[in-house]
Design goal:
Largest sheet: 8 strands, mixed
Strand content: 15-25%
Number of domains: 1
Structural class: alpha/beta
Distance between the termini: 36 Å
Order of helices and strands: HHEHEHEEEEHEHHEHEEE
CATH superfamily: Vaccinia Virus protein VP39
Oligomer: single chain
Number of helices: 8
Helix content: 25-40%
CATH topology: Rossmann fold
CATH class: Alpha Beta
């Protein structure tokens, strides 16, 4: 896997061989051979590569979405030899064009349509570029390609609500397992994590959180630190 140092996710992969134990555990628990996986906010493709192994090369299907062209080029290089379908597009609540802030490869984990999710004042040290990117909906993509996802991973850097709005049919009819990045960092225009969790639960899902090597029923909070919540259909 091609990585970029000292980028934060790349650094974790280089040191430990994986990133985000809770999300890795969720994929290993719920993805089976022949399954279909949607990776929303695929970055350089770590979770797409893991999913490709779990669903089986040439058996299951992995679709990886990454909007920023420079990040997408590394994603494409990493995943296409494994049969993953990589798309240079953002996921949104409607088909349109949106403007994203590109902080460059070394800060690519924080590229966003809104302010970057940073917990302190050690933000990017370079001038950001504003780029226009195509945006689609997951519902539209799934319908166009005749796909039924079994697992949807969403890591959209403060645009999670818009992604959820664009997959209403998937949530109500297809019923995949969903992972959702949460964290309240005071980003202007972003919905609170509690609203996001309640939104998915209102579609007939149970929320789970990872603790000490297992998944437990999640209890709603007023404020969330950075984490991933896993949703399974009731």
């Amino acid at each position: 896997m091609t990585i970029v140092l000292p980028e934060v996710i790349s650094g974790e992969v280089a040191r430990f061989g994986f990133v985000e134990e809770n999300l890795v555990s969720a994929l290993m628990a719920h993805l089976r051979p022949n399954a279909t996986f949607f990776d929303v906010g695929a970055h350089f493709g770590f979770f797409s590569l893991l999913a490709a192994d779990l669903v089986g090369w040439g058996r299951g299907a992995v679709h990886a979405f990454e909007p920023v062209p420079s990040t997408y080029r590394i994603l494409q290089r990493n995943v296409e030899p494994c049969g993953v379908t990589a798309l240079n597009a953002a996921l949104w609540c409607e088909p349109t064009e949106i403007e994203i802030t590109d902080w460059g490869l070394a800060m690519s984990a924080f590229n966003s349509v809104r302010s970057p999710r940073l917990q302190d004042n050690t933000g990017p040290k370079r001038e950001a570029a504003k780029i226009k990117v195509p945006a689609i909906t997951l519902d539209g993509y799934a319908e166009t390609h005749g796909l039924t996802p079994d697992f949807v991973k969403i890591d959209a850097e403060s645009a999670e609500y818009e992604v959820l709005q664009g997959m209403k049919r998937i949530l109500t009819e297809k019923r995949p397992v969903v992972s959702l990045e949460v964290g309240d960092f005071g980003v202007a225009g972003a919905r609170s994590s509690r609203e996001l969790v309640e939104h998915v639960c209102d579609h007939g899902y149970n929320a789970l959180e990872y603790s000490d090597g297992t998944f437990l029923l999640h209890q709603l909070r007023d404020r969330y630190a950075y984490s991933n919540i896993i949703f399974v259909p009731r």
